[in-house]
Amino acid sequence: MSNATFYIVSPESPQAHNKGFAEYIIFLTGYFAKQGAKVYLNCNDKAHAEAIAEYFWQVEPEHFIAHNLVGEGPKYSTSVEIGHDGVKPNWNRQLVINLADNHTTFANAFTQVVDFVPCEEKAKQQARERYKIYRQAGYQLQTIEIQHP
Q1: What is the model's pTM?
Q2: Which among 22, 28, 39, 117 is placed 20 to 30 Å from 56, CA to CA?
Q3: What domains lie within the chain, and their CATH numbers?
């Protein structure tokens, strides 16, 4: 059965800000990759994908995660691939971390979806719409509030 997990970002959390959110994305990506998942990060567009890839280069060497943009990197890609609407992952990916605002047509290609409910009202509404689409597609849904110190 396919699963979709929504992480709820509270306004007072470090993840409510760009840098904190990017750090959390890297943390989650690393967590899933260490479990052997082939992770796809879905972004809004090419510029967004490149910005996310840049965050992966800014971590300390001991936290580095091999990654590549769709169309770059080794023939069979790395365990983490970053793309956007209009491009497809190089090969079979089990898990997608959705960073795009409202693109959900990709979801049926993955057995596990990670998505977010941001703080801003318009973004919350977009997350609600994605939630409905996942539910209609038959995904088992759950929500998790991001824990922070």
Answers
A1: 0.90
A2: 117
A3: 3-145 (3.40.50.10110)
